[in-house]
Amino acid sequence: xxxxxxxxxxxxxxxxxxxxxxxxxxxxxxxxxxxxxxxxxxxxxxxxxxxxxxxxxxxxxxxxxxxxxxxxxxxxxxxxxxxxxxxxxxxxxxxxxxxxxxxxxxxxxxxxxxxxxxxxxxxxxxxxxxxxxxxxxxxxxxxxxxxxxxxxxxxxxxxxxxxxxxxxxxxxxxxxxxxxxxxxxxxxxxxxxxxxxxxxxxxxxxxxxxxxxxxxxxxxxxxxxxxxx
Length: 229
Description:
By secondary structure, the protein is mostly helical. It has one domain. It has helices at 2-10, 14-44, 49-52, 66-75, 93-128, 135-158, 166-174, 177-184, 187-200, 204-223. Helix 5 packs across helix 7 (166-174) and helix 6 (135-158) crosses helix 10.
């Protein structure tokens, strides 16, 4: 994603430069909200570990992982530093881990919904005041579009049921423990394979289809709101 935008900027595409300027704050906000949501969910379920470690904050410095942030910027799929969670503090360990894991992707799907909502709202206002073709309107629509895309990408990527992603914790509810821990033994190798699949583009294409499909569904739902175009 970032590489393509940089190429376009070099070729003189002004809007690609604007997109790059939008990309950084959106990525930082998306990853920060994602991790904070993990901690908040765990805290609500009885585990104060994240709170004690100072992770119940929207300060990006507490959450960002260098490699995960770079991957998010380049490919649109990434991660932040895992929020520390002690499953022993949950009444039901498996359920507690699954809910706290799900909270991260869920927060990004909520953000992507608002991204679509704000996009339609901005579009409606711009057309009504005859300002659709203005540079400000186009930049604003671009921001909400990118905001929606990146948050949806972050959510769907982290729902993949392989370690160290959130989906692996959710999988633990379904998979018997003896099989789950066998899989977790190979976490480092699975992580490496995941990086390779992203770099080669083999994983990006199917994920892009899922992202596009989700956004289309949300877009149709939001367009049903009276008064919005």
